[in-house]
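Allow me, if you will, to draw on your knowledge of protein folds for a short while. I am sending you one protein, given as its amino acid sequence and as whole-number tokens for its backbone shapes. Kindly check, if you would, that the fold set down in the tokens agrees with what the sequence suggests. The record follows directly beneath this note:
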Amino acid sequence: MAPETDRLAALPTRETVTDRCREARAFFHRHPLVLVALVALLLETYVAYRVYAPLGPNEWPVLKDSVIFEYIGWHVAHGTELYTGIWEVKPPLAFELLAVLAALAGDSVATYHTLALLVSGGAVVGSSVVVAAVVHELTEDTLGTLAGGLTVFALPMFYWRALVGFKSKYAVVVLGLLVLWLALRDRPLLAGVTAAACIGFWQLSVVFPLVGLGLFVQRGAGVRRYLAAGTVAGLVVLLPVVWWGSFPAMLAEAVLTPLLVTESHSLQSRIQFILRVLGITIPVVLVGVVGLAGSFDHDRISREWPLLVTLAYLTFVMLFVDFDTVPDVFVWFAVVAVGVGLAVSRGTGDAKRTLTAAVLGLVLLSTVTMGGFGTGNTQLTNPATYDTTTEMEVQFLHNTTERQHLFWTAAEPPTCRVFVGQTQYQAIKAANLSPEGERYWEAECGQFGPIWEAVVEKYS
């Protein structure tokens, strides 16, 4: 009987369990970002299981336009020069990062793609944490920090898209809000480096470096260190481009082409598309907008004005400049998530707890049902797939299957314009890069002169 008695004595008592729960609550109250990180990691891991568990050993979700990022990153690592050897309208840092992953993966495309997915999935978790960090820095409110950080999981495409393939907008969310957080905490050197990296992933993210600079100017200290660190980091990002001799080509494709080729969708169609993308998260968006509107308060405006400027700028970008795919809403939605945290932090009593429960309830419903929200429509768990054992001849037809084949077989680029889309096609046409009778995808890449002349003509 003695061993049984000892076993029972070793079991935790109700008082012990209560004490441990109390200690855990106290820890997470002191360190809410840890709780946000753990919950976000759990949610993203669950989503990854739902996506990949049903797939066969050679099946992967179709990469969508992520195939462009990852294909270019692979070939940059294997000797292709960005902007001249292969056309791209994005800044270089995303491809430099992917080239590093490709180098780490050796000769395995599957390993490379897995690393890219881990980076993107990690960026989703990082987005959740950095949203929470900004909320906590501004409010020091535990519930607001938790609600704001996890709000990004209310939008199904936000947590799902990262598990299909690499997208630079996740890095922009993390880096952009990190600039703001570092500036609020008076860290000019780290903020400057982060600001340069942010622009290196997306040209239009310039608002984050600018509001970061504004905070240091407002504080009256750290401006020179911020600018110096940003300049050095920017030069490091551009170093490979200069080494390749592709700097003029980068200016033509990543700077001038967006000025030359503007989207023609009407304002009404864009608003309708945005509303369709947001879907059932619109009530949460309204909470976030109200929370950010509260920043106009006299006692808060001096620290929270960067959020208002950023939201206004990103709203303008979506409505008038760049919104043609779902990920174009991600950066804007992350800023709105900060507003949700602010709204919760300013509540009191039962109203505060109810709002928190409503937000977290929608987050849980979104992830558990994988976007079905109880309707049974869970298309995110059944994406279009590609079998990597597929064999085909590359005819350069620009269709989805052929693009997947090019990537998974690590086929050499048949032309520098391997992924000709509307932006490339319109730039070729506007700058007359394809002589009469020549196939447009054979036009030489990186032609600064004709692109510059076309831009001057357009705006003169």
